[in-house]
Amino acid sequence: MTQLITGQVLTFDDDPFAVPPETAARHEPSGAVAVAEGRIVGVGPVARLRAEFPGASEVSHGAHLILPGFVDAHVHYPQTAIIASWGKRLIDWLNTYTFPEEARLADPAYAATIAERYLDLALAHGTTSFCTYSTIHPGSVDAIFKASATRGMAAWAGKTCMDRNAPDDLRDTAQSAYDESRALLDRWHGVGRASYVITPRFSPTSTPAQLSALGALWTEHPDCLMQTHLSEQVDEIAWVRDLFPDARDYLDTYEMHGLLGPRGIYGHAIHLEPREVDRLAEVGAAVVHCPTSNTFIGSGLFDMSLTGRLRVGLATDTGGGSSFSMLRTMAAAYEVAQLRGQALHPAQLLWLATEGSARALHALDIGRLKIGAMADLVVLDLASTAAISQRSARAQNVWEAVFPTIMMGDDRAVAQTYVAGKPMK
Ligand code: GUN
Ligand code: ZN
């Protein structure tokens, strides 16, 4: 049974950082996405799709804009309940707010509650897939994969490994990190839409032995992603230098232990040395821009010109990030780029939040309105509030119509979210 989901449709034929942004995209003012068995089977003008699928049922979203569901490439779902905690920078913020909350996820019932709450919030904000850290507790990984499977969502997640510089109740060992990560990988990787991600939190909280153990696990499972943090704050970088006197730079602490590769995803990557950028580019690794986090915990301004050399994803980094919304995250990316003299086009912002993040995750069947891709969609109301509608009413083209929603929109702008073709509200 085929269904036509109709509205305005925006598709990308190209990377808007590689070609002039407006030429990368195609706008269909009276468009449709045809869906069958959870996948996209057609995209284009509604008249053409009606002719192509004569028996199809229709759901009309009027003049709302249909996009691929947002892909959040770096989030900490266990930090859902401590989002917007006041007054600290990275290391103090971790010790004061984050670690005590993460310790609470030792209780599988609490982990399940937070996983459900996170996914409800993500979907309400138009996010249909995500790559998340869990806590050191294997049950926290089970919780997020189970809750995602219930909703049919594509999920990337891994046990966050730490064997030093963390409280007693949040430390594993090199061996238990390897064993528990491997058991979770065997249990979840490739099951339904779940993908296991090898997850050393960051160099300061792993001994060289633990980094090596996880590097070995990655060598044994090279199809898995590996996620960690890189060069987020200057104090953190100085700490890494003290902890790893033999490393050439922060990235080298990972490379020395087998944790640099094409499927590596490095969060933040703000204060990079030229050598680090060169090595990331040589291996084809991805970095993830987390702009609300970078301003909220005072980390710095990501350099968007890296898009010319590296795969770059976009992410909330909830709860270091101050929002669950990829719209708010695009707005922050715009503002951060402005502070560096880089004006991001709405096409670039929307692409980062969808296909850009999907590419960072090596996911080919999400983040795109293409035949064969999963029908994970978000439908945006471009006039969701009085402030936005008085602005979008003047729009001369789709970019002027969507930009006020990027800058001022929130969950009220999300008219509908589809996961594998199924409406989620
Ligand atoms: N670096 C190590 N752990 C974290 C975390 O939980 N959040 C952020 N923003 N940075 C980190
Ligand atoms: Zn993070």
From TrEMBL:
Pathway: Purine metabolism; guanine degradation; xanthine from guanine: step 1/1
Domain Aminodeoxyfutalosine deaminase/Imidazolonepropionase-like composite: 31-56
Function statement: Catalyzes the hydrolytic deamination of guanine, producing xanthine and ammonia.
Cofactor binding summary note: Binds 1 zinc ion per subunit.
Protein name per Swiss-Prot or TrEMBL: Guanine deaminase
GO molecular function, one term: zinc ion binding
Keywords: Hydrolase, Metal-binding, Zinc
